[in-house]
Amino acid sequence: MNCKMEEFHKVNPQAKKKGFGRLFRSPTLFEDVIKSILLCNCSWTRSLQMAKALCDLQFKLSTPKRKRGCRNNTQLIPSGNFPTPRELVSLNDKTLNQRCNLGYRASNILRLAQQIQNGTLKLSAFEENYDLQSTEELYRKLLSIKGFGPFACANVMMCIGFYQKIPVDTETIKHLKEVHGMKFPTKRATTVQIYDKYEPFQCLAYWMERVDYYEKRFGKLSELPPSNYGNVTGSYIGPRDSEGKVEE
């Protein structure tokens, strides 16, 4: 973690009281990067569907039988994990889209996998070569990647451990309206009016609120069955019990 937990708890005592301060991330930065792309311009349920389709694809690629659209016949271990860059570059973007229904994202994801595989893009450099004083440089570097906008960049930075930028989407706007009572929230309002007092931990403070908001409605997120993951969104409206939680 790039920032000390104690420093976050100093600027946000409520986080210390709740025991909040870390965010889960994927086993590899590549998986976090691709999932950040999958979050863009679609619903949360759709994002989950595309991520699952990629894992299903990885399992299918594990068979030695040559698939239509593949460039080689490499035998892979049948694990059903998230695909690696090496596995994805065995496909063309048409095949990738057909199997995973990724839409415009397919070509961007495949291009990224190819750049990583041929060494022109080193994701490890994002974690090793930047610190709190160079986060703007990191942001610009991420923004130069095809398919990356402000949301995806902020999301990846959060996964790496830099929390100054908040990945703003429709869920953020709903959160500002419902939790902070803002009638016409803007991206600027997100960082300046509410979260800049927590610098450089704006995103951690934001996610502490989001987790609290969701758990009041759905119960402990760590205990939620996978079948209900798609419901964890501000867009979901369901029956509530006496404590305000969504009834099963």
UniProtKB/TrEMBL annotation:
* GO molecular-function term, one example from the UniProt record: class I DNA-(apurinic or apyrimidinic site) endonuclease activity
Domain of life the protein comes from = Eukaryota
Per the UniProt entry, the Enzyme Commission number(s) are: 4.2.99.18
Entries under SUPFAM superfamilies matching the protein: DNA-glycosylase (SSF48150)
Name the InterPro entries for this protein: DNA_glycosylase (IPR011257), HhH-GPD_domain (IPR003265), Oxidative_DNA_repair_enzyme (IPR052054)
Query: Which reaction is recorded as catalysed by this protein?
Result: 2'-deoxyribonucleotide-(2'-deoxyribose 5'-phosphate)-2'-deoxyribonucleotide-DNA = a 3'-end 2'-deoxyribonucleotide-(2,3-dehydro-2,3-deoxyribose 5'-phosphate)-DNA + a 5'-end 5'-phospho-2'-deoxyribonucleoside-DNA + H(+)
Q: Name one Pfam family in it.
A: HhH-GPD
Q: Which residues form the HhH-GPD domain?
A: 34-191
Mind telling me which PANTHER family this protein's record contains?
Answer: 8-OXOGUANINE DNA GLYCOSYLASE, HHH-GPD DOMAIN-CONTAINING PROTEIN
Q: Which family does it belong to?
A: Belongs to the type-1 OGG1 family.
Under what name is this protein listed?
DNA-(apurinic or apyrimidinic site) lyase
According to its UniProt entry, this protein's organism is: Abeliophyllum distichum
Tell me the lineage of the source organism.
Eukaryota, Viridiplantae, Streptophyta, Embryophyta, Tracheophyta
